[in-house]
Amino acid sequence: MSSIGKSINQFIIEQQLSHAGSGTDDLSGLLADIASACKKIAHLVSRSAIIGIGGASESENVQGEVQKKLDIITNDVMVEHLNCHGYLAAMVSEEIEDIIQIPEQLPKGKYLIAFDPLDGSSNIDINLSVGTIFSILRCPQGVTQPTLEDFMQAGTEQVCAGFCVYGPTTMMILTTGDGVNGFTLDRDIGEFVLTHPKMTIPEDTAEFAVNISNQRFWETPVKSYIEECIQGIDGEREKNFNMRWVASMVSEVYRVLTRGGIFLYPLETKSTSPNGKLRLMYEASPMSFIVEQAGGVSSTGYQRIMDIKPTDLHQRVPVILGSKNEVERVIGYHEEG
Ligand code: P6P
């Protein structure tokens, strides 16, 4: 029988039954809590102008970025939904400088989570898609007050990664290491239902995504690659390329998952963000897990992103991800120097 239309909770339980004994029972509970939080966020995002929670707040986050009101509100939604059922030992959020410990009076669990509650929030006020990105790690045995060191795990240690994109439809994209599946929020029943089983990224593409206004800051390999894409058949390439830039990583990655593409936020020579803009623990690492599970490649240009062991909660890394043959071409240019 087709799995299309199966609810996310049913799907996760079946997935964990297929890994019976792998101790993933709490994982399905944690994912159900994440799905509930994302449904609440989808509701708030769609009504932000109506209930007056659009626009900027008066505060800045740890990144020194002016926080949108919804950045703060959605962070609180995630924390409130995730800290009460005893699945987590602690959390990390893009919006909060330090580790978010589970309150003393609440039960603690065996997982750690890092999330960006509202990625691409600069798009909120112009009615473009935004999203929530999360990465789930195991908490070291017996640790009930996780420290920085407990979170410093390479992307290969992730148990699960996912993102929710709040667009024309609200979708949850998920991997637990057994492929990538897409679930669409059916508002009539208030459930995410399976609509995109076993998503795979085409190995080739003719579509690149980069913020070209930063071109003067890129290293030569990226400059050469993008120039080739722009030149198309008038240059070295056998095809012409198209360009997209939504300024919302969840939308770019979802597009890559559905029709292929290459997304780049590379190293930059400007001092303000030499390692590019994207954060390792709750953007690059979970998205790399998803991309690799869908048959794509994700690299800094110099190394596989999934292999990077963080040294800081909010560490930034360059990101080049998407269709295997194009990303490997860019990696080749880096190797040539
Ligand atoms: P730029 C959103 O702020 C984000 O972190 C990603 O979602 C997105 O890909 C990128 O930054 C957009 O960067 O340079 O276009 O503002």
Automatic annotation (TrEMBL):
Q: Does the keyword Magnesium apply?
A: yes
EC number(s) from the headed UniProt entry? 3.1.3.11
Where's the Fructose-1-6-bisphosphatase class 1 C-terminal domain?
A: 201-334
> According to its UniProt record, which cofactors does this protein need?
Mg(2+)
Localization, per the record, is:
Cytoplasm
Judging by the UniProt lineage, the source's domain of life is Bacteria
Cofactor comment text: Binds 2 magnesium ions per subunit.
Q: What chemistry does it catalyse, as a reaction equation?
A: beta-D-fructose 1,6-bisphosphate + H2O = beta-D-fructose 6-phosphate + phosphate
Gene Ontology molecular function terms on file: fructose 1,6-bisphosphate 1-phosphatase activity; magnesium ion binding
Q: Which pathway does the record list?
A: Carbohydrate biosynthesis
- What residues does Mg(2+) 1 bind to? E94, D116, L118
Q: Name one GO biological process term.
A: fructose metabolic process
Q: Which UniProt keywords apply?
A: Carbohydrate metabolism, Cytoplasm, Hydrolase, Magnesium, Metal-binding
Residues recorded as binding Mg(2+) 2, renumbered to this chain, are: D116, D119, E283
Q: What is its main location?
A: cytoplasm
A GO cellular-component term linked to this record: cytosol
For the keyword Plastid, the answer is no
All copies of domain Fructose-1-6-bisphosphatase class I N-terminal, residue ranges: 8-197
Residues binding substrate are D119, G120, S121, S122, N211, K277
Q: How does it assemble?
A: Homotetramer.
List the NCBIfam families hit by this protein, alphabetically: PRK09293.1-1 (NF006778), PRK09293.1-3 (NF006779), PRK09293.1-4 (NF006780)
Q: Family, per the entry? A: Belongs to the FBPase class 1 family.
Q: What is this protein called?
A: Fructose-1,6-bisphosphatase class 1
Q: Give the organism, scientific name.
A: Methylophaga thiooxydans DMS010
**Top-level taxonomy:** Bacteria, Pseudomonadati, Pseudomonadota, Gammaproteobacteria, Thiotrichales
Q: Which gene encodes it?
A: fbp_2
